[in-house]
Amino acid sequence: MPKTIKQLEKIANAIRQDIIKMLVTAGSGHSAGPLGMADVFTALYFGGVAKLDPKKRQDPERDRMVLSNAHICPVLYSALAHRGYFPKSELKTLRRLGSKLQGHSNNHANIGIETSGGPLGQGLSQAVGLALAARMNKNQHIKTASSVGRRGTIATSDAGRDYHTWCVMSDGEFDEGQTWEALMLAGKLDLREVTILIDRNNIQIDGFTEQVMPLENFSDKLKAFNWFVIEVDGHNIREVLDAMKKAKAMAANPTAIVCHTIPGKGVDFMENKFEWHGKPPSPTEARLALHELRTFGGKIKCEHE
Amino acid sequence: MKAVKLSDFWMHKTVEKRPTRDGYGQALLELGESNPDVVVLTGDLAESTRALPFGEKYPERFIECGVAEQNMMGVAAGLALGGKIPFISSYAVFSPGRSWDQLRVSVCYAKANVKIAGAHTGISVGPDGATHQALEDMAITRVIPDLIVMAPCDAEETRKCTLAAANYQGPVYFRFAREKTPVMTVKQTPFEIGQAYVCREGYDVTLMAAGPLLHAALMAAEKLAAKGIEAEVINSHTIKPLDTKTILQSVKKTRCAVTVEEHQITGGLFGAVAEALAKTYPVPLEAVGMHDTFGESGTPDELLAKYKMTDTDVFKAALKAIKRK
Questions:
Q1: Which residues of B touch A (CB under 8 A)?
Q2: A117: domain CATH number?
Q3: Structural domain range at position B87
Q4: Active-site residue, selected from the candidate residues B69, B156, B157, B179
Q5: Residue A162 is assigned to a structural domain of this protein
Q6: Which residue among B4, B30, B241, B288 has the highest number of C-beta atoms inside a 10 angstrom radius?
């Protein structure tokens, strides 16, 4: 049964609470990015548009999700655990020796993570490769079907297998030349099989993006590379889902969904502060943050406290 | 250990000469036919890396990435994780030279089944000069966990190396050269990843080569034989994992050795052998290769002579190694 927007918002809130708990337990990690992207990850894993299902984690036709800015992996881990890829109790092992939940996400454990990341700017290339593999599978299927009886079968186990590739990126990653190389290749190939969701939160480690390395006019730049661009409020789950549906239905161009987000969203003392890019909350700050999240910013009374 | 079969003409003037890259192109065509999962990527270097014939025959499995090696490495990682067997064709100075971070994280750390073919390696690249002569590629690849590193000795062996890379599950880097070099091996000469082999048996000194300079080592062995010195010659085509077993068996007999490579001796075959012997059975070890300097423009022969990588240099190094016993 598809979830209502209200239900999705509740999930996003729970994902945020686990991000705070993970970070304070780990004692290191990034706060602003994961909180800012909780709504987008909820849309991805619970919205019903992307084919992401823990019961089908090995299905060759599953959609592929590539996290390029892997430092925001706490939001990925939290979303995966809530979705049932692994027990929520494992979240507290973040950044611990022997944990599946490394400081930057990798694909070593079978918990629904497809690639390895960390150094910025690598994810879109990986996503383009995954999308190309899907396209080749499709073409191979067509070719095989048309050549049956003539030269026998050359089908591989992957022939005909189709899927969509979703890539989550940060705006800071657009400082990397490799990102533009990948945009150019996907644009050249009209690679409609790939969609990027860009966390346009305007901050990076050293400050605001427009001071560190201006990106504007961002959307025009993407369009110039033959991408179809949709701008959404990254905290409006319905808008994100509508954009994802549109992206999946594209006949030609690859799609970039520019998600305007507030870094640290949901915790007022973290919101829009680049100082919170790369540090975890202290235990006191975590208590305040969890209180705010549990009461939806003071809108409701918290039963736990 | 018995010496493997080489061409009957390897030291003859009439020996067939072909660039090792030709063997790569030939193998890609064979793989195109036999394995529909094999895909080829290039960064605006289709012809000179010999990837072009594959691209013409299998355009739906050929990706022209433009002059963008970092992206190309990442795209290959994605293709591999999507079930394909991608071969990246570029010059080694660019790939893995420029795309090392992507090789490390997107490919090797992610255990992606990517094959990286590094063309135009060694000083013999010639007139293009220092920037295009890959002399550090084995060093930068050898330090990455789980990455296979190979330097086949001639066109036929490059063909076998390419086929073996396709059959191996995991990331592989292999290098080849620009110029025509003697084809020493024949179809029957065995090739297995990680398995060095003896080309000539001897007991006075071990000459180990990786790449086309194996010919210089064999020629040097002839010269040594004329002086009554019997050299054992090993083709150590796989630098990682190094076949320490074969090397140890030989040096335990000869008690001195020379490494021969068109690469910086630091981090290349010399580095690998020195590390292995230091831990197990230290013997006097001499190095023929680049000694911590950049190359320059010139003809391949001029450069090999100036930077002391000819058969005469191997001969001299062998005498030095024997003297140190």
A1: 36-37, 39, 60-61, 63, 65-66, 68, 70-84, 86, 101-102, 105-106, 109-111
A2: 3.40.50.970
A3: 17-182
A4: B69
A5: yes
A6: B288
